[in-house]
Amino acid sequence: MAQQKIKAAGMYAEQPLKQVYQQFKTSAAGLSSHEAQTRLTTYGPNTIQRGQRQSQFKLFIKNFTSLMALLLWVSGVIALFAGMLELAIAIWAVNLINGCFSFWQEHAAQKATDSLRQMLPAYTQVLRDGQQQRIDAAELVPGDIFTIQAGNSISADARLLSATGLQVDESALTGESVPESKTVAYQPGDGKFAETNIVYAGTMAASGNAQAVALNTGMATEFGQIAQLTQNQRPNISPLQKELNHLTQQISLLAILVGVLFFILAIFFVHYPVAKSFIFALGMIVAFIPEGLLPTVTLSLAQGVQRMAKKHALVKDLASVETLGETTVICSDKTGTLTQNQMTVNHIWLPSREYTVSGQGYVNNGQIENYTFGQAADLDLLLQISVLNNNTTVKAPASAGQQAKILGTPTEAALIILAEKAQLDLPSLQAKLPRQQEFPFDSERKRMTTIHRDHGQTVAYVKGALDGLLAISTTILDHGQVRPLTAADQQNILAADKQFAAKGLRSLAMAYRKLDAQAASDQASVEQQLTFVGLTVMADPPRPEIYAAVAKCHAANIRIIMVTGDSALTAKSIATKIGITSDQARVVTGTELAQMSDADLKTALSAELIFARVAPEQKYRVVTMLQSMGEVVASTGDGVNDAPALKKADIGVAMGMTGTDVAKDAADMILTDDNFASIVAAIEEGRTVYSNIQKFLLYILNSNLPEAAPSVVFLFSRGFVPLPLTVMQILTVDLGTDMLPALGLGAERSEPGIMEQPPRAHNAHLLNRRIIWKAFGWYGLIAAILSTGGYFVTNHLNGWPQAALAASGFDYRQATTMTLATIIFCQIAAALNCRTQRSSVLKVGLFSNRKIIGGIIFEVFLLFALMYIPELQVIFNTAPLRGGEWLYLLAIPIPLVLIEEARKYGLRRHAAADR
Ligand code: ATP
């Protein structure tokens, strides 16, 4: 089809459908795959292209205009005017390298988060070559006939061909969050996008289902047009990044104050020239400003996000990474998250008799004991309801060993397979009893009804949760006869259900009702006075990895609360089996929950408990109450009605495979494998990232004191002791040698035992007392003593104070080199020590973090270069050291690491004794 001039979808609303088909060269049978492929090249992919969030150039420049960078530019100018050309060039060069490095970090972080977006393609069900197919929504083309289902986003601007109870949330386009009813019949409605028979890309089907013909796709849709106008999206800044920003600002302010003070003291106390005093003060400022911190944190968070994605947890923004580490409670649904969502009917219960069913999975590999379709009227009817009240298709695997493809839900797929086992001929049954109407399943009613013509009669087939269905049944089919449903029957049915539920099995009830053709056909009047037929009983085993994941949560003091739509007994049986609760746990049903006061709910939540038969809306209340109790809550969900709870939770978790687009949209994290264990893996990763950030914060702060101490010595000796560490040398440590090991600490793997500690407090500060104490009162202090000491040792070897010690000359340069080298070797020890908080670094493997080892090798190389390359010696005020001094340097890390190892050993012993 040649590309026609694109018209807004609304223009097709009033045209007869036939004309629309003609214009799009399509029909109710859809396109052929070949034609769709051709159109894809003509119209391009059905995707919305958003612009770059921030121009790369702006991002690049930003790194050269920070407070620190500006200070360095100005200092270079001052150095230049003071006649120190080499220093000026060196300061600028270092500033340039540092800016490029920060830019690279930010760029890498952005690339990491951007790549996640491509990992979650949206799917659409289309009719091509006369067959229903699931395709990547990006491949949808104008003229395609596609299906719209409750909870899913609408993939293109389209005209409706059929619709059952379709309500569309158009807030993405109109801002109006009350869903609009959409029907096949045209009505103009009020305002833009209000035509009743047109649906728009980017909006969501809140309920019902429909078929539609795609009119416009991709950037030609109304949503695409709007997205084009509003390209600029501000990136979200996580609380951690905000805290760091704040911290950096505060420290920088403090550094500048100290700098000004040192500047004044240098002029008046040491009688230093102004320009030299300025450069001297600059050294102090550079020493204290934690310049590399923010980009390193951003990269570290982004790398965390990438590692989570590999473990099947897609996090939408960086803030969630840190919240995950704080999670104290997980509210999890059961089906598919804790269990495999591999439904197999293995039992059928009828009032007249029970049947066992053999075989497993979504293939016809078994049979219903002594039965094929047509042999027993009661069971025939049960199967008939199972397959006709069903919107799922199961595509047999193409070859042995492959999985069957399910278009629909696992529960309904199990029913299709059940009928196949009885050799039921589905197409001829569908032709014999055509469907007239449907009241779709919703998790509030927990049932679904379809209405069919049966030999001139109208009949309603109902399937759903037993408790609800029994309440609206008045008769029972027993031995082919319909008779009133007695209390004894009810007890009988419930007792059978209880038996199955106690084994963790799920029963689904089937019922029917003969309808008067003229009778009202609204849902409430159809779903009453039913005739109960029987139960299908399904097994859905727990996921094998769930046991370990639950145990991990318990060790990590994370509570799991099962919140399921399934029955109380099934829920409890599964919860106990996988170790979420003991068998003493209280089960609160949705009905009980609705009647509970807030105070009662609070009390209930303080003990072991399971929520069963709850409506998704009730999850919202549970989450809210837990939060009011100070918990940090992760909550799972997959349906449309789960969205409020997902939004409310600190971490909303949607299911990537079975979840609706509405749920995915509301969530903070999407599980690509729907697996509870992936939440636990993400929490572990969240904890790791936070602890890594603390590790490199500690590492960066470590060098502050040894960098500042020489200036203090110089100042308080009134210049008698020449400056033991020059400004260029401070820059070398801060913007040179410290960078790579810090980066390596950000990529450190989870420390053993990280999931054996309680979650960190919600309001805990990144820079806590422990870190301050360690950085300044311990590591930093030792490094300050050793490095300034090193300076004096070299001076002593050179004959000072007897020999004159000019603040230039070889001896002086050798002494400052010693200070610099000692700081670097102390930092080598610190890099190794900071890798773990409690575990022995030898146990996690001294060489297991290649980035750190690489960083250390780089540090040593750089030091070598500075010492032995004559040009660099001039700029950095360095000189070669003697063998004895090298021995001193090489020996430094050994006791420092050993002392720290001893401390960690004590810590572990102490923790073991506490247990
Ligand atoms: P969870 O909330 O843990 O995912 P669930 O799948 O049982 O568990 P819902 O999807 O809310 O929760 O379903 C609730 C109940 O509704 C089920 O236990 C079942 O009895 C019934 N049900 C589920 N799917 C269908 C369906 N397609 N048609 C009719 N009834 C259904």
From TrEMBL:
Family: Belongs to the cation transport ATPase (P-type) (TC 3.A.3) family. Type IIA subfamily.
Domain spans labelled Cation-transporting P-type ATPase N-terminal: 11-84
Assigned keywords, A-Z: ATP-binding, Cell membrane, Membrane, Nucleotide-binding, Translocase, Transmembrane, Transmembrane helix
Record has Methyltransferase as a keyword: no
Membrane-traversing stretches: 59-81, 87-104, 251-272, 278-302, 776-794, 814-832, 852-869, 881-899
Entry-linked SMART domains: Cation_ATPase_N
Gene3D superfamilies membership: Calcium-transporting ATPase, cytoplasmic domain N, Calcium-transporting ATPase, cytoplasmic transduction domain A, Calcium-transporting ATPase, transmembrane domain, HAD superfamily/HAD-like
Keyword Transmembrane: yes
Topology within the bilayer: Multi-pass membrane protein
Leader peptide range in chain numbering: none
Pfam families: Cation_ATPase, Cation_ATPase_C, Cation_ATPase_N, E1-E2_ATPase, Hydrolase_3
Superkingdom of the organism of origin: Bacteria
Protein name: Cation-translocating P-type ATPase
Protein localization: Cell membrane
